Amino acid sequence: NNITNQPILKISTIVCDGFTTYSSIVAVEDILFIRPIKSKTPVGPCAIIYSSGTTGTPKGIYLSDNALKSALISFKQSLMDEPIENKFMMTSPIFWYTGTLLMMLGVHFGKPRLFFSTEPTTEQILCSIDKFKPTFLMTGVAAVNEMMFCQMTNGHKYNIQSLMTCVVGGSPMRADLQRKIVNNLLQGRIPIKQGYGASEQGIIAVWSMDSDIGTVRDGSVGRPAAGIEIKIVSLKTGKCVGPNTEGEIRIKSVSNMEGYVNDMRKTICSYDEDGWFKSGDVGYYTVDCCLFIVGRIKELMFYNHERIAPIDIETVLLSHPAVLDAGVTVKNSDHGDLLIGVVKVKPGQNIEPKKLVSYVDDRVKDHERLRGGIIFVDDVPRSPAGKLKREELLNLIQ
């Protein structure tokens, strides 16, 4: 962790009486006269980015010049087979690490990048694809699900045929939902390619851009990206496990962070004794090195000592024709966590809670049943990057 004797930014809690927006800066600054600052050292803090904050307060993360360059090269190598007329679009904000990388990648390739100045609606995303004709879209699971509903409801009103690549990240997508979106949104023309990354490590796994419908494994986030090593360790023993065995994903990366801002203790605790980064994610790999994500360790639920990954139940909820978005949370009982579905219903649709509970219970294992019932909400709480805000879900039922 090369942050000793380096100039660093000390961050403390302050109350601001105002702020300057990015749009106001570029409105008065002539960007043609801005010149990049040359890095004086390849190691040590070069930039600070922030984690998503979906499971707590966002963490400031130091990145070195080397880490940024390595992450960019890794991302670039996955895009080498893209059409020469590439045009990138991303729906998540630039503070998301992949947003920063995509912006830099566009500069490297000399290709246009399309970003939204505010969080876009589903129709704004579809309208922008129709109008600006991007070939590469990076977005979240919730976004493509709502795009699918909008297109199916409106008779595929928007022309999205320009898309040659659709990469989805932020949270895992189960195989059933992935196939449904490929068939109904993308009309079976191109695959959805899931990716997996972390602010601390950059791009960890992704499907190569020359993968087609026949080679992309539904439900998988792909194979390790360039410069990445992955191992899976038992949650009980910490020892490495083989193919098709679940455990914590641990990573060694050329894009490794320098550390957390003002938190050396957390930085040290984020690595095991051999220097592997503890991702906090449960997953497994197959014999052909395809990586699958089960969920976050801290988000796993238990009923009668049986482990539950909430995304499995959320995927079943999303498969119901009346459900637009969904999350699963819990309330405690003597037997463990009682699962509760938090559901946003599609406009014009009505369904009784008991019928939706029965729909789910008929499709899951006994310990995964919605014993806590269903509540309906106007919106399921998500971060700007499209990730479920689990703490806010829990607050909704209290």
UniProtKB/TrEMBL annotation:
Coiled coil stretches, renumbered: none
Signal peptide positions on this chain: none
Compartments, record wording: Peroxisome
Domain AMP-binding enzyme C-terminal: 313-387
Domain of life according to the entry: Eukaryota
Principal subcellular localisation of the protein: other
Ranges where the AMP-dependent synthetase/ligase domain occurs: 39-260
Keywords: Ligase, Peroxisome
One Gene Ontology cellular component: peroxisome
Pfam families with a match to the protein in the record: AMP-binding, AMP-binding_C
Regions that span the bilayer: none
One function term, GO molecular function aspect: CoA-ligase activity
Family the entry assigns: Belongs to the ATP-dependent AMP-binding enzyme family.
Protein name: 4-coumarate--CoA ligase-like 9
